[in-house]
Amino acid sequence: MQKGVLHLLVGPNGSGKSTLLRIVAGLLSPSFGQVEYEGVARSRIREAIGLVSHELLTYGELTVEENLRLGSGLYAAGEQDVEQAMNRFGLGAVRDRMVSKLSRGQRQRVSLARALLHRPSLVLLDEPTTGLDEQGVAAIVRVVRQEVASERVVIVVTHDPSYFDIRERQIWRLEKGRWA
User: Torsion over CA of 130, 65, 152 and 133, rounded to 10 degrees?
Assistant: First the structure.
């Protein structure tokens, strides 16, 4: 998949979109074959991946700042990266709040900030607009545009590709685990 192009995975519920994303991320093993990114086996590319799963990968009992610091430790990102992420995603006002006390949109921003903290070259987003209001969707689309413009490989699983009206995009359709 090309850098600087938004790759949208679409298809009906149960078609395998999220499963494919989990395989690419290295969270599941494929039944056969292998996944490579830039010629490297997926088992060795964790630091290249930024993942926002449908189930937000944040810790509710930690504050926003603690969640980002935990993420920075996993990916060798520094203090400056945490502060930049706070600013980029508008999290400064809630930095000391427990993630479990945040709205869905705020939790989504924390998850995005954590996933993109280390500037991954492969960005994987699973239904990033689920449960968001208009303002939240617009924020997600803005981030996706920025990541595509930064020449990253961006793959988004979505039921509504119309949200992502980006000139450089390719739509991939899955049905029953196969390309349609």
Answer: 20
Q: Hey, what are 12's tokens?
A: 């009906």
Entry pTM: 0.91
Rounded CA separation 154/51 (Å) = 10
Q: How deeply is 161 buried, as exposed, middle or buried, from its count of CB atoms within 10 A (0-12, 13-18, 19+)?
A: middle
> pLDDT value at position 143?
94
CB atoms within 10 A of CB 106: 19
CA neighbor of 102 nearest in space, from 43, 58, 149: 58
Quick: pLDDT tens for 52-94.
Answer: 987 778 999 999 999 999 877 766 678 898 999 999 999 999 9
> Which tokens sit at 81?
């990266």
Q: Measured between alpha carbons, how far is 175 from 13 in angstroms, rounded to an integer?
A: 9
Domains annotated for the chain, with CATH where assigned, are 6-179 (3.40.50.300)
DSSP-derived 3-state class of residue 30: coil
